[in-house]
């Protein structure tokens, strides 16, 4: 049996795809990796909000699934929209790696630092922590962003710790932000294996139940806030507590709440944005 596994073509994406493939291989099962270029890969200059925000790194993979050009799509779960498109489902989440954000180039935040990130979620929380920071837009894969930090003379960049770990670049990390300080993106650190609805059996044996429980709660909370909310949103479940926040993109205000019901928590956040 041949399973065609679709992935973005970056070094990190292919590393994650191979991680998934190693779990899927078995007696009588062969894996073919199929690199696919997404909108987020093609346009590396515009801010995410101008090319579609969430979903810009997954849409083409989802289309390939629906068109039967691949059988499994491997995603960084944080890149996915908060709900699955019709006809598709997350058949498995691999066990979650470090969900935290990482500061590269420095060990702490200092007044007046120039920090690179394209994430409005990170921008909002960093400025709430230290309003004097200069947050500069920075896109590209991990290697590119690390290189641009030096080329542009930035004091630091903020990246997902899991990506650095997976590429053997943990030595670049000066500080891993505790979620109490910088709340991660919903589903950050998890790898999702998406399939056509009804074909979950292809990947079901690789599913990590505890990761699914936490990540699905985070995604449900963000979905309840709604796609029409333009404010930065974050959600993280630590195994006991679901925490979520909304903020002004410039850090002028930030509201953090905890709760047990993801939908109720999301609606509460949305009510705060509307006030």
Short summary:
This protein is of the alpha/beta class.
Descriptive overview:
This protein folds into 3 domains: 1-94 and 190-207, Periplasmic binding protein-like II (D-Maltodextrin-Binding Protein, domain 2, 3-Layer(aba) Sandwich), CATH 3.40.190; 101-176, 3-Layer(aba) Sandwich (D-Maltodextrin-Binding Protein, domain 2), CATH 3.40.190; 209-275, Double Stranded RNA Binding Domain (2-Layer Sandwich), CATH 3.30.160. The chain contains 9 helices and 13 strands. The protein has 275 residues and is of the alpha/beta class.
CATH topology category name of the largest domain: D-Maltodextrin-Binding Protein, domain 2
Strand-pairing-aware structural class: alpha/beta
Known CATH architecture of the largest domain? 3-Layer(aba) Sandwich
Low-confidence stretches: 46-52
Approximately how much beta-strand content do the residues carry?
Answer: 15-25%
Backbone shape: globular
User: Strand order, biggest sheet?
Assistant: 2-1-3-10-4
- Work out the radius of gyration: 18 Å
The CATH top-level class label of the largest domain: Alpha Beta
- Biggest β-sheet strands, sense, barrel: 5 strands, mixed
Pattern of helices and strands = EHEHHHEEEEHEHEHEEHEEEH
- Number of domains as seen in the coordinates: 3
> How helical, in percent, are the residues?
25-40%
Give the end-to-end Cα distance, rounded to a whole number of Å.
Answer: 55 Å
Tally of strands? 13
């Amino acid at each position: 049996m041949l399973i065609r596994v679709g992935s973005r073509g970056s070094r990190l994406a292919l590393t994650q795809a191979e991680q998934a493939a190693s779990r899927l291989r078995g007696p009588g099962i062969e894996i073919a990796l199929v690199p696919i270029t997404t909108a987020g890969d093609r346009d590396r200059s515009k801010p995410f909000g101008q090319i579609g925000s969430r979903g810009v790194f997954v849409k083409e993979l989802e289309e390939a699934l629906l068109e039967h050009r691949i059988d499994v799509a491997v995603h960084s779960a944080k890149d996915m929209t908060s709900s699955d498109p019709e006809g598709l489902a997350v058949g498995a989440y691999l066990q979650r790696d470090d969900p935290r954000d990482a500061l590269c180039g420095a060990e702490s935040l200092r007044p007046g630092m120039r920090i690179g990130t394209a994430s409005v979620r990170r921008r909002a929380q960093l400025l709430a922590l230290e309003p004097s920071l200069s947050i500069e837009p920075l896109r590209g894969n991990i290697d590119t962003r690390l290189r641009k930090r030096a080329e542009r003379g930035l004091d630091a960049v903020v990246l997902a710790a899991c990506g650095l770990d997976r590429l053997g670049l943990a030595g670049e990390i000066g500080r891993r932000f505790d979620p109490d300080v910088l709340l991660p993106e919903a589903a950050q650190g998890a790898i999702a294996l998406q399939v056509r609805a009804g074909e979950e059996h292809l990947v079901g044996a690789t599913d990590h139940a505890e990761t699914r429980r936490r990540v699905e709660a985070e995604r449900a909370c963000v979905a309840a806030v709604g796609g029409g909310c333009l404010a930065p949103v974050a959600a993280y479940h630590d195994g006991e507590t679901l925490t979520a926040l909304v903020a002004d993109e410039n850090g002028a205000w930030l509201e953090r709440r905890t709760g047990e019901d993801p939908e109720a928590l999301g609606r509460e956040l949305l009510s705060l944005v509307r006030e």
